Structure formats: structure tokens, C-alpha cells
Amino acid sequence: MALKVGIVGMRGIGNNHADCHAKDELSDFVAVCDVVRERADETAERHGVKAYYSLKDMLAHEDLDVVDVTTGGNENGSWHYEPAMEALDAGKHVLVEKPLSNDVREAREMVATAAEKGVYLGCNLNHYFTEPAEIAKKYQDDGQLGELVYCLHKMGFAGGERTYGGLSKAPNVDGFPYFHVKAFLSHPLSVMRYFCGDVTHVQAFIDRPAFRKTAGDVMLSINSIHLKFENGCIGYLLSQRGDATFGLGGWWSIEVAGTRGTFVIENCVEKCTFFPAPGTEGAAQPEKLAMGSSPLPVVHESGVSDFGATFPRRIHAFLEDVTNGVALEKLRASGRDALAALEYTWAAMESYEQGGILVRPHPLPLLKGDPRRQ
Q: Closest by alpha carbon to 68, among 28, 103, 118?
């Protein structure tokens, strides 16, 4: 039976989620909610669902299984906590847009409340719900990477000084130096953790270019972050917000290398390339490679170029996990996963503020397991 779903927050992202739920066989999309009546009414009319103007009313009148929280706020996350907590307290499963919150203390409380209530809390960490990521994960699970050595991730928007539109007056952006850091880094940090595991050490160097400084723009838009993973792998994340244009790999690329092979994903949804290490099955023997040469790669083209394709895939995965009743700790892109990305984000901010010192992230809540499955 399809899950009864209500959505809170009907701006662009909320309507994107609404379109996904309307087309998903696992979703019985029945209601929307927004404090701006016109937004709720417009989406409700388009999808033939009920409009509400407070979450309290929606919870009182609809027997919902899932509340999808797509509100925004300062740094794209300050309006996530209240509706998510209200839904969790009502015993509903909750999916929240990223970042889980713009305040890591709130995020910790959200994760703790979901665990206490025994309900699912997911986050829209959609960047690894792609065909290239599935292919890359299979290489890893099949042992074709071997022991992980390093992870390089670049993510940002193409731009430069001539495309800079000046100081943003958007209330969620203006005056928030960490807007890009908090609103954006949940994606790359979650992807790196997805492939490489938990992070034990963080070091960050963060700045903004001269054209932003001249305009009085306080956004810290260039982020250089060094990571050490629990398994010994080292990582590097480079993110920027339209201050330059990335070369190889496009706007989104990740390279994960191990002792047996390396994969590279380009432009998130488009391409996965696997480079077998010399001497492994299917690769050239070391004696047949000239100095500096590499074995021939295996290239997988997805045929997809629309990043928007990640939304229905990720939302369907959440609905699928809830429908199947997976163990709470097995939920894909869970609130705990989103909290991990925020803990690393906060560690990066602390490192930057302390001149680039090495910081150990706040520990994640332990995975206690589901007593119903023991």
C-alpha cells in the first residue's frame, strides 16, 4: 500500500518534491502546507491535493505516514528544525531537504528524537542516487578498488569575475559568511563519506576572491578541505560558488583510488570511468606499461545529463526503505548521515577560524540497532 505523504514548504524545491511524489507509485500524495496561502493553494490545485497553512492543521486532519520537509530559511536550513521536530513528535517518518539544519545542535536533536521515537528520518542527499554512483559502488563492493588510498572531490558552479552578479540581497544569503559552506557542503561531504567512511580529522582553508571583497560580499565561497578517514584513506574537497570554472570532470567530479583500481565520476549523473591498477584482472601487466602510462579505462556513459533526475531516484529510495521496513540504521541517506556531513562542516569552520588547525569532528551517535530485529 502506498504511503500517505504531505509536504511542508511549497517553493521551488517543494514543488520539485511534489512532482516526484505525484509520479511515484509508492507515494499517496495527499496534502501540502505553506504559511503563504497562495503557494499552498497553487500546488494543491495543480496536483489535486488538500492545502493547509500550518503543519499542526495538516497533522490533525490527515493520517500521514510521511512528512516531507522542504522549507528553506537562513543558509537554506533554518526552517527545517521546527516542522521536522513537530512531525517526529507526532510519530511520522520525515524526509528533510539538505542541509538537515543550519545549526548542528538542532541537527543532533533531530537525529536523537527520531531514534527515540523509532521513526525514519532521512535527508535529501541526492548526489549519490545516480547510475554512475551505483556502478562505482559495485566496483567497490566487488573488491575492485582494494584498500582505499585517496579521495578527491570537486564541486561548484561555473563562473568567474565577469559572471558575478554582485552582492545578493536574498535574506537567506545576505550577511551570512558561511552560506555556501552550510548550504552546499552537505552534498560533497556526504558523497565522500558514502564511499570512504567516517572522517576522523579535518583541516580547512577558506576564503573569497577580490571581486567579492570589493562588493562587500562576506560569503566565504572558496573552500579547501583536507580529510582523514577512519580507514586510513586521505581526502581533499575543493568547492567554490561560481568564482572560477572547473576543468576536467566538469562542475562535479569525484575520484576514489585504491590499491587495485580507481573510479572517477564526472558531472554527477553523466559518466563513471574505472581505471584498473596494473597487474589486476583485465589490466595491462606492469612490464608492458611505459613510465607514466596507465592501463586502458572502462568507461560507462549513463546517457543522462539532467541533474534533476537525482530527485525522483532519491525520494523513491526513501519511500522504498520505509515501505520495506528496513532497520532504522539501514535507511539510505539517513538523518545520521546528514548529521555526519554537518559535523564535518562545523569542524571545517572551526579549523578555518583557528587558522587552519587540525580538528577532530564531534562524534556521531552510536548505532544501537533495532531491538525489534534482535
A: 28
